[in-house]
Amino acid sequence: MYGLVNQAVQDFVTQHHGADTWKTVREKAGVQDPEFLPLQQYPDALTFAMVGAACEATGRDAATLVEEIGVFWVTFTAQRGYGPLLAQLGTTFPEALAALDAMHVRVALMMPNLKPPSFRVRDVKPRSLTLDYISHRAGLAPLVIGLVKGLGHKYGLQPTVRLAHAREPGGTTDVFEVTW
Ligand code: HEM
What we know:
Elements: H1 3-17, H2 19-29, H3 44-58, H4 62-87, H5 93-98, H6 100-110, E1 118-125, E2 128-134, H7 141-154, E3 160-165, E4 173-179
Antiparallel strand pairs: 1-2, 2-4, 3-4
Helix pairs in contact: 1-2, 1-3, 1-4, 2-3, 4-7
């Protein structure tokens, strides 16, 4: 993944658990570089190792920690120059969810090797919708839960996000019920 993601993990661990915890995490995960470059690609395995080490160091389970990083990501990217992209997502929360693929296409202008996920919004009702999440990466459903909650916060909402149907082994689609 692009270094921007690793920077978010680093900032999240440092801000929520302290610089000493981050030092432990980077050593355990075998982070070599003194700092991550946002537009450089790193192996996905490094990001996953950092999350694993952060769980060990903080005593939090992976699903909780990854969801928290998802919530953090929305404010983190806004501070790293991607605020306008997020602001232009849509005037309502469901509109924003429906515009995520178009947003990642714009991110890919800066990150040509981006392998973004894909989202499909269906069954839109006044206070709920169904969200399909399609990715070649497994294990990131808790991230989506945090991201969608974090995005909801931008609209003054506290959404509930429930994994309604987890992907089959070898599959690519998780289905979420989002209510607000
Ligand atoms: C402007 C803000 C955002 C930026 C700059 C951004 C950028 C990125 C980047 C760099 C990656 C790593 C992919 C790679 O390196 O191949 C990524 C992955 C991802 N993004 Fe975004 N993103 C943003 C907002 C969001 C939001 C709001 C959501 C969902 C609500 C989202 C959902 C995801 C997910 C689930 C992944 C994990 C990769 C996967 O599933 O395969 N992103 N994004």
